[in-house]
Design goal:
alpha+beta, 2 domains, Tyrosine_recombinase_XerCD, DNA_brk_join_enz, DNA binding, Integrase-like_cat_sf, DNA recombination
């Protein structure tokens, strides 16, 4: 019998391969580490995976740092973790990458899920449990990795087709959908923790922030709730991203969302061109709206609120420690618009350097607690800041009756499917919808209210 154990050691998970006889007596034991390092140098994040002989796993290095070089930090990080688990599994089962077959893929899925199959030559005692959806994401990383290396694995790539109806809410046409046979089944879980900030929630949050006299927080939550910005897009804003343009002879305030080489990983604009070299700033793609940058029209009250924050916060930071301010807050000037002044990131922390997502999340969590808004304790599935963007979408649907195609444009989504995920009515919403329907039905058919069986 071979037992695969997962052990917490030195803030990381390592694995053991144990050989035992039929009586459970241990004959041989070996540890599998595969150490993962993240190196940040000259605004570049490099991921390195070492085997147990402290040799760099070259194929993984090339795939993550060269093939995926233009991908967002979070995508690369998720991929390197997935590949670490793959190589741990290969070492534990003494399997070569090129020899993975159907049985091995099935064992790999159990390994990733975190529990042991009911029968077989392997017994797994694992601590980390993953969802089917997460395992499917890892399998997709492996497909990309195999394709990059030119390795065939029929069990991983085999597909099936089926017809689904109403997948497109506009055309309502039947469409052929292709899925991988090796993928695990996933459903749509019922989430009773609110996925969006309601108008009443927002009113309470603003009241708490104003009681805190926190101008920074008001700027951030209003950008996310009133204009649908993601947190990373907000934290990546710089002076040159706040501008005025002429529309039909009138000046209008706008925000420009774009990536910079000087950005930290939490400041990326998700759907904009990823920057790996400063020369990209002058490229045609980078200067093309919808590819290199996105333009968000805002209102003058928010434009003035942002300028008021900048005047206060940055004057204080410069006066307190000018050299630190110039070094830590400075941002690349992209030259996509005429901007001759030095460029700096807009939002600062209490010591006058760039505000991080971690610091912001700590504050907004305290606001949610004081506002008595559920925060889904112990789970990372409900991003607190992203609920403001969900609130923006639901406000458009519930109050402004915005058409889904227009909402797609406002949300800056490439696909309609992404937009539809933002429709998350709460139990209260469902109650109101159903009662409205029933009351309108009673108006049309008054007799339904009567008890016909008395």
């Amino acid at each position: 019998m071979i037992i695969l154990n997962e052990i917490k050691k030195d803030n990381t998970n390592i694995f053991e391969r144990i050989h035992a006889d039929d009586n459970g007596k241990i004959i041989f034991r070996e540890e599998i580490h595969y150490r993962l390092y993240k190196i940040k140098k000259k605004n570049t994040n490099t991921f390195v995976l070492y085997n147990d002989n402290m040799e760099v796993v070259s194929p993984v290095y090339r795939f993550i740092n060269i093939k995926m070089a233009k991908q967002p930090y979070n995508s690369r990080e998720k991929s390197i973790y997935a590949l670490r688990f793959l190589h741990c599994f290969l070492s534990l089962t003494k399997t070569k990458l090129t020899d993975l077959n159907h049985d091995n893929i099935e064992k790999l899925k159990y390994f990733l899920l975190g529990y042991s199959p009911s029968q077989g030559s392997y017994s797994m005692n694992l601590q980390t449990v993953r969802s089917n959806a997460t395992v499917n994401e890892y399998l997709q990383v492996y497909r990309s990795f195999f394709s990059y290396l030119g390795i065939k694995c029929d069990s991983l790539f085999e597909t099936r087709e089926f017809i689904t109806f109403n997948i497109n809410p506009i055309t309502e046409k039947a469409e052929n959908v292709t899925s991988y046979k090796s993928n695990l089944k996933t459903g749509t879980p019922v989430k009773r923790v609110p996925r969006y900030i309601s108008v009443d929630n927002f009113k309470t949050i603003i009241s708490i922030i104003r009681n805190d006299r926190n101008l920074l927080a008001e700027c951030i939550v209003r950008l996310m709730y009133q204009f649908g910005l993601r947190l990373g897009e907000v934290l990546g804003l710089t002076f040159e991203d706040l501008a005025e343009i002429e529309i039909n002879g009138k000046l209008c305030p706008v925000l420009y969302l774009r990536d910079r080489l000087s950005d930290d990983f939490f400041q990326h604009a998700k759907t904009c061109m990823h920057i790996t070299n400063a020369k990209q700033y002058k490229s045609k793609d980078y200067q093309t709206e919808g590819v290199g940058y996105q333009q968000i029209i805002i209102t003058y009250d928010i434009y003035e609120l942002l300028n008021e924050y900048i005047e206060r916060a940055h004057a204080k930071a410069r006066a307190h420690n000018h050299s630190r301010y110039c070094k830590k807050v400075s941002a690349d000037t992209t030259s996509t618009i005429n901007y001759s002044e030095d460029n700096y990131y807009v939002f600062l922390n209490s010591i006058g350097t760039v505000l991080s997502a971690q610091t912001w999340n700590k504050y907004i969590k305290s606001v949610f607690v004081r506002a008595d808004i559920p925060i889904d304790t112990g789970s990372k599935t409900t991003n607190l800041s992203h609920r403001f963007r969900h609130g923006f979408a639901m406000f458009q649907v519930q109050y402004l009756k915005t058409h889904v195609l227009e909402l797609q444009k406002l949300m800056r989504h490439k696909s309609l499917a992404s937009t539809m995920k933002y429709y998350n009515p709460t139990e209260e919403d469902e109650y109101k919808i159903k009662n409205t329907f029933v009351n309108e039905l009673y108006d049309l058919i008054p007799g339904l209210k009567e008890n016909a069986y008395e």
